[in-house]
């Protein structure tokens, strides 16, 4: 792997300088200098053996469910009143995206705050979980598998869910399908198309200054940030095979998303999203050879995140739904629209954070997930 990283030749600075403005990542993608910096750090300052040792400190398990080897981290707080919760990532995330929440939500020993027993799986086709057994595998199928993980493999009678990105699609399907076992859900993204400015205006919704920025971030993504989505959804083989054995190619494709979709203040408190974290995530994708299988989730769920008539969707459950908008996320749903899809009991806006909230603002995310305890019936 190191040889491949070292020997990858990037374009000349002169070629690129005439074609991109300084830090013009929203219009042209990742900058050449940023990619060079990441490549250099990967070669000279990143020790996978050290990262692997840190990852191995978590309690990892695998269980075969419906032909899939499901990998998950299980972090038990030791509190008999702890709420079981499953934390679901999306693309280009991984279970690593959720691990900063372990010490915040599952502290060892008694505590006066709400605590949780955490289950952090790798979505089928991602990381250490094997690929789905059929080509038409959907987020609803993954939700069914994860419900079996929680209830049959781990023996939880009731549990909560947190999800983002594709994890919000899986989590929402669980919230809808398994309303006797999923008794609370927290999301930072919805599996429905974000409302347009016209949709928002039609409901006479007044946005706060922070929400205006969030809505503009969504508009920027819709107009110039979703090319990857179309490629994944229509030609997953092409992009998958092109980057399969190219670590620097995966670094450019994945690293761009971490940089652009996150809070511009990334790497400063409370964010822990540094170059090192990006390199950890890309290393996991490359070393587990899961890039191709991960992008297939788009082709298998082409209706995901499409425009929705919000008067015609509502989860079949009375379980509480909690939602947090992070200011610099790439999708934005005002409170009125989130309330249309579930039993919304809490809607919060966080000024700091973006798409990868577990890395962008883990403390704020943990606080909002902990609010589940206000509505949980033991």
CATH topology: Rossmann fold
Shape: globular
Query: What structural class results from the helix and strand content?
Result: alpha/beta
Count of individual domains: 1
Oligomerization category of the chains in this entry: single chain
Distance linking N and C termini: 49 Å
Proper CATH architecture? 3-Layer(aba) Sandwich
CATH superfamily: Alpha/Beta hydrolase fold, catalytic domain
Poorly predicted residue ranges: 21-25
Helicity, as a percent range: 40-55%
Q: How many strands? A: 8
Mean pLDDT: 93
> How does the major sheet shape up?
8 strands, mixed
Strand content: 15-25%
Q: Assign the CATH class.
A: Alpha Beta
Walk me through the topology.
Layout (H helix, E strand, L loop, with lengths): L1 H6 L5 H5 L7 H4 L3 H13 L3 H8 L4 E6 L2 E8 L7 E6 L13 H4 L10 E6 L17 H15 L5 E5 L2 H12 L4 E6 L9 H6 L6 H16 L2 H8 L1 H8 L3 H14 L14 H13 L3 H10 L19 E9 L6 H5 L3 E12 L2 H4 L1 H9 L8
Parallel strand pairs: 3-4, 3-5, 5-6, 6-7, 7-8
Antiparallel strand pairs: 1-2, 2-4
Helix pairs in contact: 7-8, 11-12, 11-15, 12-15, 13-14
